[in-house]
Amino acid sequence: MPKRFAGWILAFPATMLVALFLLVPVTLTIATTFGDGSGPIAPYLDFFNSGFRRTVLWRTLEVSLATTAISLVLGFLTAYVVSRAPGRLKSILIIAAVFPLLTGVVVRSFAWLIILGKNGILNNFLTWIGVIGEPLSMLYTEGSVIVAMVYLFTPLMILTLVGVLENIPDDVIQASASLGATPAATFRQVIFPLAVPGLIVGAVLVFTGSFTSYATPQLLGGERQMMMGTLMYQAAMVNFDWVSASTIATIMVVITVSVVLAMTRIAKRLNPMTT
Q: Which PROSITE patterns does this chain map to (predicted)?
């Protein structure tokens, strides 16, 4: 057997599984939206002509982008500290970062119900120290969803960035300092550009996870802060409107792919290794 075909043969089973269980269902879902008797684009016109659905789409984008931005900042700072920590301490910090991932999404989201509820931990603490006179309504707001999303997805950002930051040679940082660069300049001109690939990968993971999330918006946002995932579930499982559900899924796929492509292009421009 020629060696040039060995790689293709090894990749064939995985490629077929991806095609069978991912590409085919997605293609059929998209095709469903064009089979409506009112016209091929009628479901999309119905979606964007609805003020409620446009609001849900905008809210989902807003929450996802806010979650991604906050997770980027927190994840990068934490990953930088972890990457510079000595061996045993580094292991402990990585375990602490990964620990939230050992519990389910529903469990972690439900924990925030206990923290942010009117009789929850945070309200009781603020009342006890005299900051507020009566409990605040923190649940079922956009802020509560963002806080929970950041808590859910920041560990992914940390794990992605730790490996990237660890692979930045110390010689490069020391050379920057020896040439007279300040720590801020070294970070801006050396560390950050080399960390861009990890930042983009982490941003893609966080954005796609938060944009398609269902359990957390349902538990902490409810009907007041409905997002695309909950709207799609309602269309499919409550109203049994499969065309509308497929339309929502298609819009989510298009937006997710567009954002991933845009982030990839930004990464290529910012990464010094590609210039």
A: ABC_TM1 (PS50928)
Two tokens at 18?
């991806």
In a domain, 36, yes or no: no
CATH number assigned to the domain comprising residue 246:
1.10.3720.10
Distance of CA 65 to the CA centre of its chain: 8
Contact between 120 and 132 under an 8 Å Cβ cutoff? The reply is no
Tens digits of per-residue pLDDT, 151-185? 999 999 998 898 888 888 778 888 887 877 787 88
Task: Give CA–CA dist 139/241, Å, rounded.
Answer: 29
pLDDT in tens, 190-225: 888 888 888 888 999 999 999 999 989 999 988 888
Q: How far apart are the first and last CA of the chain?
A: 39
Locate 128 and state its tokens. Answer: 């006890």
Tell me the residue type at 245: A
In a domain, 199, yes or no: yes
Model pTM score: 0.86
The pair of structure tokens assigned to 24 is: 């085919």
pLDDT class of 5 with cuts at 50, 70, 90: low
Q: Are 209 and 156 in contact (CB under 8 A)?
A: yes
The 10s digit of each residue's pLDDT in 216-228 is: 999 998 888 899 9
Q: Is residue 66 a contact partner of residue 73, using CB atoms and an 8 Å limit?
A: no
**Which tokens sit at 112?**
């925030």
Has residue 82 been placed in a domain? yes
**CB half-sphere exposure, 241, CA atoms < 13 A:** 15
